[in-house]
Design brief:
mainly alpha, 2 domains, about 65% helix, rod-shaped
Length: about 130
């Protein structure tokens, strides 16, 4: 079955919200890691051991990794949603003719008999948004 434009937009909305939530969780996780790393540095410094450069770099990488991925997910959520929920292209499976606007039950290029869902999608496309779809 070919999904309606409203269904596609609803799915994209839910994917976009889910990706943003996942990104926010990663950023929050990064903040918790940052607090732990900072406490470790303070305890080393107070105990008189000093702060070693290797621990600083490892701590920065531990904190920045999930945080940067989370920020990227939040920023790119609309693009990820468009990638995960694409708008279907209505093309003939035999000759690759674009079927947008085709209202007959066959491909005008090669004559292949089309399914009812493709014909209905062609009617919705030819009617345009808000005019019968």
């Amino acid at each position: 079955m070919v999904p309606s434009p409203a269904t596609i937009m609803r799915l994209r909305y839910f994917v976009r919200v889910g990706v943003r939530i996942a990104g926010a969780v990663l950023v929050a996780f990064s903040m918790v890691l940052a607090a732990g790393v900072l406490l470790g540095f303070v305890s080393q410094f107070v105990s008189g051991q000093g702060i070693r450069l290797g621990f600083v770099l490892a701590g920065l990488l531990t904190v920045l990794g999930p945080g940067m991925v989370g920020l990227l997910l939040v920023a790119l959520a609309p693009k990820v949603a468009r990638w995960l929920v694409p708008i279907p292209t209505y093309r003939c499976p035999q000759c690759d003719y674009p079927l947008a606007g085709v209202t007959e039950g066959f491909c005008p290029e090669c004559g292949l008999v089309l399914g009812e869902e493709v014909v209905e999608a062609g009617r919705r496309i030819s009617a345009g948004p808000g005019r019968g779809g």
